[in-house]
């Protein structure tokens, strides 16, 4: 099994059925692995569209959407959708191909530190630099992608290298709110952001607020966390107020 085949297998074990993509040489081994495994490749006209498809899937399902693009300029193009997801904490995973790790920094095709470029607008960004660590690195990225966009750079020589499965970790549980101990003089307020929505913890948070009579507000982009009438719901704050 190659690292590319292992990555596809790990994605399928996490329920991923398709990837949005634009054909590019930097992802040839991953594309071939996907086809052999029966994973659907949704080809788009440009990398921006691929990223927005993954982001939209994440918003609608609250599970990371996956897009895969080639290296260099293709990676930069995809960051448009990644940035949009970052502002709202939408779950998605961007996989970018790259020239061989062995020639990184030596002027191979569109040589670029893609992980460093993505880092400011992602919850996790790194290079898969050892084939035997592919599963573990994907697991870290997948967990981070629950809270907003994550990124993996997948060099060509690593994609084609032998790799062995290392087991699949259990998915993150919904938001767990510990018992609160409020000072007698305090008047707490819950500001519920995107993480609550995408984790599916809105019902638990509402129950918590009702039990402790704590008001809830959400920023403008996080509407939908409270989806029923409630005495503790105080509306939207920020640009819509």
Please explain how this structure is put together.
The protein has 241 residues and is α/β, with parallel strands linked by helices. It has nine helices and nine strands. The strands form two sheets. Strands 2-1-3-4-6-5 form a six-stranded parallel sheet, with helices on both faces. Helix 6 links the parallel strand 5 and strand 6 (150-155). Helix 1 packs across helix 2 (28-37), helix 1 runs parallel beside helix 6 (134-145) and helix 3 runs parallel beside helix 4.
CATH superfamily of the largest domain: Thiamin diphosphate (ThDP)-binding fold, Pyr/PP domains
| Content-based structural category | alpha/beta
Give the overall pLDDT as a whole number: 87
Supply the number of helical segments. Answer: 9
């Amino acid at each position: 099994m190659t690292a590319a085949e292992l990555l596809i297998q790990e994605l399928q074990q996490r329920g991923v059925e398709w990837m949005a993509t634009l054909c590019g040489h930097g992802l040839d081994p991953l594309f071939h692995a996907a086809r052999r495994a029966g994973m659907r490749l949704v080809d788009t006209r440009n990398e921006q569209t691929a990223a927005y498809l993954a982001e939209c899937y994440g918003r609608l399902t609250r599970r990371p959407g996956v897009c895969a693009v080639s290296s260099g300029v293709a990676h930069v193009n995809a960051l448009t959708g990644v940035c949009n997801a970052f502002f709202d904490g939408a779950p998605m995973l961007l996989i970018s191909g790259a020239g061989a790790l062995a020639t990184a920094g030596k002027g191979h095709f569109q040589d670029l530190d893609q992980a460093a470029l993505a880092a400011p607008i992602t919850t996790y960004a790194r290079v898969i630099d050892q084939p035997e660590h592919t599963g573990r690195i994907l697991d870290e990225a997948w967990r981070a992608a629950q809270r907003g966009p994550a990124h993996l750079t997948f060099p060509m020589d690593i994609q084609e290298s032998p790799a062995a499965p290392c087991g699949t970790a259990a998915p993150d549980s919904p938001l767990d709110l510990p018992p609160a101990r409020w000072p007698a003089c305090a008047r707490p307020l819950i500001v519920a952001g995107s993480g609550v929505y995408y984790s599916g913890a809105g019902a638990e948070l509402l129950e918590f607020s009702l039990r402790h009579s704590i008001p809830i507000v959400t920023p403008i982009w996080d509407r939908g966390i409270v989806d029923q009438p409630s005495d503790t719901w105080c509306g939207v704050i920020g640009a819509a107020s």
